[in-house]
Amino acid sequence: MGYTESFEPAMRLALAAAAEATGTGPEENQDVPVGAVILDAAGTVIARARNRREIDRDPTAHAEIVAIRQAARALGSWRLTGLTLVVTLEPCTMCAGAVTAARLARLVYGAEDPKAGAVGSLSGRSCRRARADSGKLACGGVA
Ligand SMILES: [Zn+2]
């Protein structure tokens, strides 16, 4: 199993979380489907979240932020050292900053976001380059 393939089960969980964003309920509560999970070093799921901007009326309730808050609560610490964030869409500037602030060990994302993505797309750098620059960012991909 390759490096990217090893994150496939987590990416599937993140995709399932994303699907919940467009589930039942009134249209004004429908969120853009983005999902995220946070894994510990053993691969155990510590947090699982989806975009909640509309339903929570919260501009910062991106899937990554919600998952990071969940993981911090679960661990009783804001330091998410050694953990991996797996998200279906390339993080925006806010979420990329939160990944750094939370000291996450690794970031794996699915689709690139040429409009708002802040890891590879916006900066014009490749994922490989971002990884080399920060020493901790990695990128996965789902077809
Ligand atoms: Zn974001």
Essential attributes:
143 residues; alpha+beta; four-stranded mixed beta sheet; 5 helices; binds zinc ion
Commentary on this structure:
It is globular and about 40 Å long. The chain has a 4-stranded mixed β-sheet with strand order 2-1-3-4. The protein has 143 residues and is α+β, with helices and mostly antiparallel strands. The chain has helices at 8-19, 53-56, 63-75, 93-101, 127-134; strands at 35-39, 45-50, 84-89, 106-111. The chain starts with 7 loop residues before the first helix and ends in a 9-residue tail after the last helix. The longest helix has 13 residues, at 63-75. Helix content is 32%, strand content 16%. It binds zinc ion (ZN). The site of zinc ion has 6 residues, from α4.
Could you outline the blueprint of secondary structure elements for this entry?
Layout: H1 8-19, E1 35-39, E2 45-50, H2 53-56, H3 63-75, E3 84-89, H4 93-101, E4 106-111, H5 127-134
Parallel strand pairs: 3-4
Antiparallel strand pairs: 1-2, 1-3
The structure holds zinc ion.
Short characterization:
By secondary structure, this protein is an alpha+beta fold. It has helices at residues 8-19, 53-56, 63-75, 93-101, 127-134; strands at residues 35-39, 45-50, 84-89, 106-111. It has a four-stranded mixed β-sheet.
